[in-house]
Amino acid sequence: MSNLVLTGAIVIALVAATCQSLTAFGFALVMVPLLSLAWEVKPAVVTSTLLGTVILLPLTLEVREHVRPARAARLLAGSLLGIPAGVVLLDRIDPEALKVLVGAVVIVASLLLYTLPQVSWPEARGATSLVVGMISGMLRASTSMGGPPAVLYLLSTEREMEGFRATLLAFSLPASVVTVVALAVAGQVTGEIVRASAIALPAVAVGLILGRWMRAWIDEEVFRTVVLAVLILTSVAIIVSASGRLM
């Protein structure tokens, strides 16, 4: 592993954690596409999953009193069904094809998350939460980006922001822990990935603190718009590059 990769992991982890702390979403959306520019996409996905799991613990503890246990449990049950498929996909998919998948997920998720405040979504019921959880689990294990499907679902069921954020985090934490275990069993958690994650961990802690401080000084919508614009442009570049190698 080169010093460039380690430096990139530290800087990108700092930015990703700041974004997560400031806007309550976006760690994997920032971490994976940017880190895959300096490193191979598969270890970038697994590193993001490891660090993203760590960052969820303090955030979940902050909002534990507002969790909706039943909704979180249904999403988690579906996610447990989807994680094995995601692990298999990550193991077998061509790295360049995975880059295209990651780029596409980032673009779609960014556009949806940007337009959601202006959209009225119908309320989701019944088995929908299991299906959403399954899709989220598969995406979490294969791309480290399992949040967007759950965000879409919870925005249609949670009318209070505190309940939305708390339920999302309460579902994501155990789902991420199970994903890490599944990736480790599948042999995807290598020594290089553990090293990169350990070195970047202090930057994650700084990013959490920085994001909390920035809430009082920076307009959240402006910051979110800039971040999403950068992610979309980066993802387009990744897709174009990977598509050329696949042809």
Q: What are the SSEs and their pairings?
A:
Blueprint: H1 3-23, H2 27-38, H3 41-62, H4 69-92, H5 95-115, H6 128-143, H7 147-155, H8 161-185, H9 191-214, H10 220-246
Based on the model shown, name its key terms.
globular; 247 residues; single chain; 0% strand; 10 helices; mainly alpha
General description of the model:
The protein is an all-alpha fold and 247 residues long. It has one domain (3-246). Helix content is 81%, strand content 0%. The protein is built from ten helices and no strands. Helix 2 runs antiparallel to helix 5 (95-115).
Count the domains. Answer: 1
Fraction of residues in β-strands: under 5%
Q: Helix and strand succession?
A: HHHHHHHHHH
The dominant shape is: globular
Give a quick account of the main beta sheet: strands, pairing sense, barrel closure.
none
The number of distinct helices, counting runs of at least 4 residues, comes to: 10
Calculate the terminal CA-CA distance, rounded to whole Å.
28 Å
> From the helix content, strand content and strand pairing, which structural class follows?
mainly alpha
List the uncertain runs: none
Percent helix range:
over 70%
Average predicted local confidence, pLDDT:
83
How would you name the oligomeric state of the polypeptide chains in this document? single chain
Number of strands: 0
Radius of gyration: 17 Å
